[in-house]
Amino acid sequence: MYRYDRTDQQLIDERVAQYRDQMTRHLAGELSADELRPLRLQNGLYIQRHGPMLRIAIPYGMLAAAQLRKLAEISRRYDRGIGHLTTRQNMQLNWPQFEETPEILGELASVEMHAVQTSGNCIRNITSDHFAGVAADELTDPRPYCELLRQWSTFHPEFAFLPRKFKIAVNAAAQDRAVIRAHDIGLDLVRGDDGELGFRVFVGGGLGRTPILGKLVRDFLPRRHLLSYLDAILRLYNRYGRRDNLYKARIKILVQALGIEEFGRQVEAEWSELRDGPTTVPDAEFARLAAHFAPPAWQTLPAEDPAHTALISTDKAFANWVRRCVHPHKTPGYAAVTLSLKAPGVAPGDISDVQMIAVAELAERFSFGEARVSHEQNLVLADVRQSDLHAVWQIARSQRLATANIGLLTDMICCPGGDLCSLANARSIPIAAAVNEKFDDLDYLYDIGDLSLNISGCMNSCGHHHVANIGILGVDKNDEEWYQITIGGQQGNAATIGKVIGPSFYAMEVPEVIAALIDVYVEQRTASERFIDTLQRIGIEPFKTRAYAGRDRRRTAKVEHRETEVVSA
Amino acid sequence: MPRIISNHCIVEDHWQVLTLAADETPATVTLPAAPVLLPLAVWLARRDEIIARYPQPGVWLDSDEGPEALAGDTDRFAVIAVNFPKFTDGRSYSSARLLRERYRYSGEIRAIGDVLQDQLFYMRRCGINAYALRADKDPEKALAGLTVFSDSYQAAADQPLPAFRRHATQEPA
Ligand code: SF4
């Protein structure tokens, strides 16, 4: 993975010093709360329902074992021994002390980490495919491009005070696993006609209260122009994005107002002034960055390990885990493993300090010392030998990291919601817990098969509910928690925004409603259909009808979304 | 006399900023005796008169006014100020870069408005070289804000080459 050079380390150290000074001035009364606010946000520090929350950056999800150990130590020493992984592949600490945050950032800097631009109206953490570098369907490794963008976006002097936050994701695989069209800019690495690498550029996607998929603004951008082209987009957005209304300030609103053709024309006009300048990226720089992501020393192994095959046929629990949590690897004899952070009874995406240490050890012993965070809030060991899978499973199981539910209904993406987040309309974690209780039979979950269920506590949509097969959104009605349900959303190449099925439900009803939706699928499916396939074939109506059958809807007045300040993971 | 930061030094400053009162219009407002930073609208309405009257006029751009309106005229100005109505309004960073990098303006670009220590580094990178701090702030203390970082990744007005063109072959830390 990427290792800092002297400049990287120096800049991060200087950032810590800057932040420490800002906090000192604030505590001395020289920097008001309002003046500090954007500064602390751009260092990841929110003030939440119960106090501060610190969001630590994990650039494109990559973690070294030493970094995991440091995170474990920090969470134990400065927090309550729990970290929460987010849909931007970051980690949140929910209980740090305000005054101790400079110390935490100092600790992070010692392992080449930081919390830079994990919040605020600036360019946020770049996200990508958690199987980068090992996926068989990948054109090339996206991480060198992510790192290029990390450096370009870090302390970009022109774009630190944008109208709103700005999210960028990069995909380089045949199957998009980074939801690129749900981003302000989505980059799809492709090969041009003459074999040159470049990008299809999507712009103006985003979830939140106005969910829209990004639109194609450029069919092919040679990779050397990446930074100047993004400078052009960001400059247009910085200058002309709306600043009068927080809810209309994302770039998607500007793109909508101008229309994608006119927006694209203005980008080209601005870019024509910038292209071929010094920001043009030379091949040598791509090569330098790519060297940081050189493949580890994979051994030459048979494609199939006989002992492994034997264990699968004799050990059902292991076989189930392999089926759901082990993924193909482009190198024979290797596999990628997802460590599920979706065990029943645990808030989705939460990981304890002890588990972090365990994952660090697993990574060191079995996966070249590295792990990744997926945007689905799980951890991935990307380079495990097939012959080691059983050992990995046993250790992971002893740490409750081997719930065999990846891609199933209980592998929920779930935001912290009303238990922690001050913007929430409703709680999310208890809904996840209730769904887990209702669907506690693994065999039934396997029978239901691939299905995504995501939960957000408010319209900010940190839980990506819009792109879930079943999406649950917390809404506030007369100070009561209600939940609106959408169905038919999906991630991937066929990314779709789900449709609302009707009036919202009381918290207690949610598990039953989900069961009703699943029943329709189970009754109607053909042998090979997933939930989403059946839904697309028979339409939303039968699901809707069943969800409301026998329910008293008199309590469901029109829902008012509470106007809240907007944050998101 | 108010003090500002100019090129890393604290200096006494004599420029006034003219703003239009509710009952004034660009065409009729009384032009004070020099030196004054005029609103863009006044410059546009009375260009010839201003050129005749001031040997080296000054102008200020609000955050929603781009430097495009000054194209071709930038060299006439001793000072072009860019306003930050709120420090969280980042539009004037783009204006400053455009003035320096596209319109090749080499005179003083001054930040006015909600100008605070913790934004000075980014302002400097965008080509701003004078800073009229908000009245309640001490420019002496704010000076430190100009030198928070010793290097930068991106090309900008202060550094035409991105880091990757300057030190691509460093040793790892
Ligand atoms: S979706 Fe809403 S409730 Fe959930 S974390 Fe985001 S802002 Fe908070």
UniProtKB/TrEMBL annotation, chain A:
Task: Name the domain of life.
Answer: Bacteria
On whether Iron is a keyword of this UniProt record, the answer is yes
| Aminoacyl-tRNA synthetase recorded as keyword | no
> Gene3D superfamilies annotated for this entry?
3.90.480.20, Sulfite Reductase Hemoprotein, domain 1 (3.30.413.10)
Domain called Nitrite/sulphite reductase 4Fe-4S: residue spans: 119-272, 451-545
Q: Entry's InterPro entries?
A: NIR_SIR_4Fe-4S, NiRdtase/SiRdtase_haem-b_fer, Nit/Sulf_reduc_fer-like_dom_sf, NO2/SO3_Rdtase_4Fe4S_dom, NO2/SO3_Rdtase_4Fe4S_sf
Boundaries of every Nitrite/Sulfite reductase ferredoxin-like domain copy: 48-110, 327-396
| GO MF | 4 iron, 4 sulfur cluster binding; heme binding; metal ion binding; oxidoreductase activity
Q: Which SUPFAM superfamilies match?
A: Nitrite and sulphite reductase 4Fe-4S domain-like, Nitrite/Sulfite reductase N-terminal domain-like
Could you tell me the keywords of this UniProt record? 4Fe-4S, Heme, Iron, Iron-sulfur, Metal-binding, Oxidoreductase
Q: What is this protein called?
A: Nitrite/sulfite reductase
Task: Specify the species.
Answer: Candidatus Accumulibacter affinis
Where is the organism placed in the taxonomic lineage, from the top?
Answer: Bacteria, Pseudomonadati, Pseudomonadota, Betaproteobacteria, Candidatus Accumulibacter
From TrEMBL, chain B:
InterPro entries found in the cross-reference section: UCP030820 (IPR008318)
Top-rank taxon: Bacteria
Name-wise, this protein is: DUF934 domain-containing protein
Organism the protein comes from? Candidatus Accumulibacter affinis
